[in-house]
Amino acid sequence: MSSVELILTQAEFATQQCPKPSDSTLERAIDGSLTGIVTYIKLANGEYQTYSRFEDDVWVFPACQGTKAIVASQLKLNFAAISDTQMKRMAKWVVWSKMKEGLAVSSLKSVLKHLNTYFQWVLSSDTTVTHGLTAFTSNAYVKYVNTLTSKQKGEIKPLVAGTKVLKFLALEELYRYCKAFDFVKEHPWSESSASEQAGHVGEALQEAIKKPKTLIIPDEVLIPLCQLTKSYLDRADEILASAKYKESLLLRDSCIFWLLLTTGMRIHEVLGIKRGAYRSETKDDTTYYYIETVSEKTHTGLAEWIAPQIATEAIDILGQLSAPLQAQLERDLVKAKASNDHSEVHRLEQISDHICLSKSLRKKDAITILSGITITELRLPNLCKQIESDWNLSSHQFRRTFANYAVHSELGDLRALKDHFKHWSITMTALYAFNDNLDSELFEELLREKYLVEEEIKQDWFELDSPITGGAMAQNIKKVRQDGELIKTFGSLQNMAKAYSSSIPIRSTGIAWCTNDDECRCDKSEDCEHGIVDKGHLPYWEGMLVQQMKLMQLDDIGEAGRAAAQKGMERTERLLSAMGIDVAAMKQEINQREYIEVKNV
Hints:
With 601 residues, this protein is α+β, with helices and mostly antiparallel strands. It has 4 domains: 132 residues; 225 residues; 72 residues, no CATH class; 62 residues. The chain is built from 26 helices and 16 strands. The strands form 6 sheets. Strands 13-16-15-14 form a 4-stranded antiparallel beta sheet, covered by helices on one side. β9 and β10 form a beta hairpin. α20 crosses α23. The chain is globular and about 100 Å long.
């Protein structure tokens, strides 16, 4: 808390609240006479509790203005680090103006951080202090920022363009809001922009927009993690009864893992779930579950996420794990009310009944919401340690992984987790598209991921060294990708591939891609005119070859069975040969592998 912490009536609050930005308030901000309440909470009795005032060096925000994942230290804006009086006043004016425009606390912290960086650079030179904000000094600052580096996974690298943009935007914010201050002389780059100064324009910008920044959790990490965490959910009753601390922690982490993986929620949305906050709905013999929570990033109020049953099981388990903490919270709430600790009453009421309660070691075991930083930086990496993986697992990777799996589901390929994701289909995507209660931004994420997945698949078809086979569509693609003159017309093979593939529909049959724009019912998709088999299907066809080889070795399947097996063998060998596989060598390798397995048994 700041030094100012008062309970005010509505009338008192109205007279002390900081006024909206205007010429008169700007004049008072410039001369340092501007005062007034900037952060506060409204109590249940209609009175207001002040958290901080404009004149304070530290502005404190109530927990309800952050996400459920935020920690107390992230709810403070510290202007004391800016030593120059005028610069501090400018920083306050910019931040307060952005706050009045509805910017979130985390974004306000970012604005202040980059302003502070700029002011520290200005104060390091008498020349820049004297000149103030001009095109000349701004150009010098750009050169300085271009020398900065950051440490990424142990490597020292230049700042990425996106980071530079944020640093340069601080100068534009100064010009926009603080023209009346003596320090601000002219626009930092009147015929340019922060993005252009950072080199974040043209093809570089378009590439950055298209290229996902978040990694997809690879199968070799995700599958063992799913097996590990699912085993904890299966043993939930046993672990809850034993109350062993380490086991309980891993059970909690496993529940959060499955909520993140199967819903596409952000970490603060998972931490905002209350006990029993889900419902079910059956459509066309399929049961859909809807989880309710608050998205403080894109929604005002409650929103819903579609989820499989395992996610609702995770909610119930977390509710049981948090029951003792909920009981303590209710006792603490009674004490806070008895002592008229209005701030504590408000805080406890805000987090009551949440499934991710925890104890704060810094505040004498006070009940709080589990920290998103704790989950991302400690608990999720700890799950990777349990499977002896060095993958840097973090909460934001789950959202894109969810979208990627959902897209593969829509294409007819559920990959490794099909047992849990069996209701993920075009129906689910349609539900997100037409239901205003569902997370619309997640639907956009699904569409973006679908575009990326389909483009990656189709782009690979047009690569000369990429083996494909199939019907007329596959043969036409092979002809087009060898046409040098046609490639020149489009400028590049990549551009040509985009032009041709944009109108090609795609869905998986398991052993091939079907490009028919209508429902296809053939059972030989590799021979169908619409069928394409690419290198991604080779593991399936190798499995079919193993299956046919085993059938051929049986002596009790009769002549019809043997003929069917021989026909299947010929079909499989023909496809593998068309894909450039040495079938004889593959058979020899399979026999050797089978021999070793039998010998080991």
